[in-house]
Design a protein that fits this description.
heterodimer; A: 169 residues; alpha/beta; five-stranded parallel β-sheet; B: 523 residues; alpha+beta; Beta Polymerase, domain 2; 2 domains; five-stranded mixed β-sheet
Chain lengths: 169, 523
């Protein structure tokens, strides 16, 4: 236990805007995110992430916005396990044919009002996989999409920016 | 002549013919008659060889019917055994009696190429789901890639357990966290797992077929997106296979830089995994500590090489990016800081009693099972198998730099976590050595298109394990076939076996300790 406490003091707080560690961009995006979330979503945005066939790189970046440096939770964004209490679906991948039904069901299970954000080149246009017998070519081919965050994969700052743009609309 | 080749020749005599179209020429490829295919496997099994991969090709353009390939491995040697199945009788003898990994490989061959393994106990489709038309065989040349696949009614039968108190738990494909999709079906008695069956293929994007419409030069981008977290190792394996088939030798500096990228990818992913394993035993403190370190590593990647995960940095003929003296200093400073911070955190992991209680003796994969199932990578090393491509199939600089392979035998979650801890320490040392001896020179050379009807083979030790790429050039020198074998295609079987005797709530940590790729498996 003493070691854990020592490590906590040794690490300090890494989320503060210290130039060598944290990107000053994040603070700008973050503060606006917090205002919008406070206004529209009463202090919390529940996101359900769905992988509809991605290669997993976008998932790594979505994991990154949960790390102590980007720390999306301080803005009120948190990821939930069920679509039933989600405000937003963050979908990655070109929608593989085998995930089409699961994606539709997840979308239907999310109650209104809901937002859908397509993440990554694959989510936006199908990426390098395009349209084929196994890949449907983008999330908007299956469910209505409110915003697109391109990138291969999009950096965590781009993700935070994209989420902000979506809920500001 | 390699030992494996000798074994096959002893068993088959003049029926085994060497095929010289495979590169590197140090690797043997033997063509055997179809009726003696299983016999060859039996002879190799007797000499303790393991099945590394099995795949089918459509060689109808060469008037050869379907090619059935099996790649065997014993310690440092590989041997590819090939046979043909005519188009009017696309069957071949199944190897499932001798090699367990053939079980899934052959189901995949049947589903995607339509070649039937005779004697295979399981007729259910794999990767292709039950709602696809049965006669849709995407890897055949006669199949049009752009056609829309209709949905038909199909039923996937599960192994069921019955009795009082037994119930069935389906999980997925959409999982609770931020993770790839796949389906797991548990048969459980209370909390105890009686059986676990996986159904994968949800992320199948038709990558192997997609390769066939790409140029050799551009294919590395697709290879790097087979499994985004293993982008360096996959694109490296593709590039090496293409360089073999084109008889191209990249410059030394490029080879060293490639190893640098490979080790950085290893460190970043192992850090993330260790954090995730701790999170799955409710020790979120270490999740954030490890991810803090991982974030610093990927930021350095971005600053020096232009991409956080080093995607698209390796291309056939060399690398896309170089490093200058300032970059070398930056990496050295980063490694010093990283090594220091890492050791502080590892001690906390090691000393924590509640973590120890959860991770030790959970999800045990015994050394015998690991061997029979053909495990590779850190999963194998945590279950007593000394397997590492960097030592067994070294390519420069690994023929100069020593790699310390850590092997544990307990095969539990802790063993798989601890192997990663040691690998991070070793990778830090390897990167320092690479920076010490980085040769001067150019970073890429031009690469020529390969001659028609040649094949190239490469293996790379990605952070999950051994990645195999086998590429074949067609009649006009285009990509006829690109076979991708991610280590996950083997290691997923291990998860099904390790969960026996464990409780359902321990499944997330067992799954995370394996952390196999769904996208790499489904291809």
């Amino acid at each position: 236990m003493i070691r854990i406490l020592r490590q906590i003091f040794h690490t300090g707080i890494v989320t503060e805007p210290l130039p060598p560690i944290v990107d000053p961009e994040i603070e700008k995006i973050g503060v606006r995110l917090e205002e919008v979330i406070k206004r529209r979503f009463r202090g919390s945005l529940a996101i359900r992430q769905v992988d509809a066939g991605s290669c997993n790189a976008c998932e790594l970046e979505i994991h990154a916005i949960n790390n102590p440096i980007y720390n999306c939770e301080r803005f009120g964004i948190h990821f939930t396990a069920s679509p039933r209490f989600a405000d937003m679906l963050l979908v990655t991948g070109p929608v593989s044919r085998n995930m089409e039904i699961a994606l539709k069901r997840t979308y239907d299970a999310t109650p209104q009002p809901k937002l859908v954000v397509a993440v990554g080149e694959c989510g936006c246009t199908g990426g390098i996989f395009g349209e084929s017998y196994a890949s449907l070519g983008g999330i908007n081919k299956v469910i209505p999409v409110d915003a697109f965050i391109p990138g291969c994969p999009p950096a965590p700052t781009a993700l935070l920016q994209g989420i902000l743009k979506t809920i500001e609309k | 002549m390699s030992r494996l080749e000798q074994i096959v020749r002893a068993a088959l005599g003049p029926d085994a013919i060497r095929d010289d179209s495979l590169f590197p020429s140090s690797l043997s490829m033997l063509v055997v008659p179809r009726v003696r295919f299983a016999e060859t496997a039996k002879a190799l099994k007797k000499e303790y060889a393991l099945l590394a991969a099995e795949w089918a090709t459509d060689e109808t353009h060469f008037d050869r019917g379907f090619g059935i390939y099996a790649c065997f491995r014993k310690e440092m040697e590989y041997l590819i055994v090939k046979t043909y199945a005519p188009t009017d009788d696309p069957t071949f003898p199944s190897l499932t009696k001798k090699f367990v990994p053939a079980y899934r490989f052959e189901r995949q061959m049947k589903s995607l190429m339509g070649v039937i393994p005779v004697g295979h106990p399981d007729s259910r489709p794999w990767i292709k789901h039950e709602d696809w038309p049965e006669d849709a065989w995407p890897l055949r040349k006669s199949f049009d890639r752009s056609q829309i696949m209709p949905r038909v009614f199909g039923e996937y039968r599960w192994i069921r357990a019955e009795g009082e108190g037994v119930y069935e738990i389906p999980v997925g494909p959409v999982h609770a966290g931020i993770i790839e999709p796949g389906h797991f079906r548990f048969q459980a008695l209370g909390e105890d797992v009686i059986n676990l069956e996986e159904k994968l293929g949800y992320v199948h994007k038709g990558i192997e077929k997609r390769f066939e419409s790409m140029s050799w030069k551009e294919g590395f981008r697709l290879a790097g997106r087979v499994s985004g977290d293993t982008t360096v190792a996959h694109s490296l394996a593709y590039c090496r296979a293409v360089e073999e088939i084109s008889r191209c030798t990249p410059p030394d500096r490029a080879l060293w830089l490639r190893a640098l990228f490979l080790e950085r990818e290893r460190i970043a992913n192992h850090l993330g995994d260790l954090g995730a394993i701790c999170n799955d035993v409710a020790f979120a403190f270490l999740l954030y500590q490890f991810h803090r370190l991982k974030e610093m590593v990927v930021r350095t990647n971005m600053k020096l090489f232009g991409h956080r995960f080093l995607m698209d940095r390796i291309m056939p003929g060399g690398t896309m990016v170089d490093i200058d003296t300032e970059g070398v200093i930056k990496i050295r400073t980063e490694l010093e800081w990283l090594a220091n911070e890492f050791e502080r955190i590892v001690v906390i992991y090691d000393e924590n009693a509640s973590v120890e209680d959860r991770v030790r003796d959970t999800g045990i994969l015994s050394p015998e099972k690991a061997r029979d199932l053909g495990m590779v990578g850190f999963v194998a090393r945590a279950s007593g198998l000394n397997l590492d491509c960097r030592i067994h199939q070294p390519f420069p600089p690994y023929d100069r730099i020593n790699v310390n392979v850590r092997v544990l035998i307990s095969g539990d979650v802790h063993a798989r976590a601890w192997v990663r801890v040691e690998e991070i320490r070793d990778s830090i040392r390897i990167i320092r050595e690479i920076l010490d001896t980085l040769p001067e020179g150019i970073i890429s050379v031009p690469i020529e298109a390969p001659l028609p009807d040649r094949s190239g083979f490469a293996t790379v030790e990605g952070w999950r394990g051994e990645i195999l790429y086998w590429v074949q050039s067609g009649k006009n020198g285009e990509i006829n076939r690109c076979m991708v074998r991610d280590p996950s295609s083997l290691n997923w079987l291990g998860l099904e076996q390790c969960i026996h005797g464990n409780i359902v709530p321990d499944f997330p940590v067992c799954n995370k300790s394996f952390n196999q790729s769904y996208s790499g498996n489904d291809v």
